[in-house]
Write a structure and sequence with these properties.
- The structure is a single chain.
- By secondary structure, this protein is α+β, with helices and mostly antiparallel strands.
- 31% of the residues lie in helices and 30% in strands.
- The longest helix is centred in the last third of the chain and has 16 residues.
């Protein structure tokens, strides 16, 4: 049986290799990733200022060191979706990517303790919430993903909860699991552990 924090722990252990950080965490990194469906890489190259001529095979475990040195992005493709990391997560940019029937997912965390999950489709924000404090949810249809949330636990427990607590790492694991369910892919095998690409920027 997998730990409830498995996906979070796998992402951290894959991203942060020895020598990069003594005490690594996604919050201090400023983690941000986007998954997009319905658009080809050529169009995304323009939106993200990617230089496709620099495309090189790269595992996620090799990526962070390259990004620190040259600002390249990790670009992965699985199940008809394209994942990009790191990526802007502001609403206006996310919505612009989805015009014309496209879909986009975003998960971000920052050093100030802000965390956001967003699902946009066809130029509108369908669902937006904080994985650590998901009530209330926002968007045009804030309960559109409820049918995919069975077994997931987001709301971190208060000090009064002593048993079966939900901690931050489990909440982020739940957000990653939700992305896997929406994209109908295996987050661990198809994304974190598979070889994809790193691509330099034209900017």
């Amino acid at each position: 049986m997998q730990s409830p924090t498995y996906l979070h722990d796998l992402l951290v252990s894959t991203l942060f290799t020895e020598g990069l950080d003594h005490d690594p965490d996604l919050w201090s990194l400023g983690f941000s990733a986007i998954w997009i469906k319905g658009v080809d890489l050529g169009v995304l190259a323009q939106a993200f200022s990617l230089d496709l001529a620099t495309r090189t095979l790269c595992h996620l475990s090799e990526f962070l060191d390259h990004h620190i040195h040259d600002g390249s992005l990790w670009v992965a493709e699985a199940g008809g979706w394209t994942g990009i990391m790191p990526a802007r997560s502001d609403d206006a940019f996310l919505l612009s990517l989805t015009v014309g029937g496209r879909q986009a997912l975003s998960l971000s965390m920052d050093i100030n303790g802000h965390d956001n999950f967003k699902y946009a489709q066809d130029g509108r924000m369908v669902v937006s919430f904080s994985p650590l404090r998901p009530n209330p949810m926002y968007g045009d249809d804030p309960h559109a993903l409820d049918h995919l949330m069975d077994g997931l636990r987001f709301e971190i427990s208060g000090d009064d909860v002593l048993e079966n607590r939900v901690e931050e790492d489990e909440s982020i694991s739940s957000a990653l699991a939700l992305i896997g369910r929406i994209t109908e892919t295996d987050i661990a095998t198809d994304w974190f552990q598979a070889q994809h690409s790193r691509i330099g920027s034209t900017g």
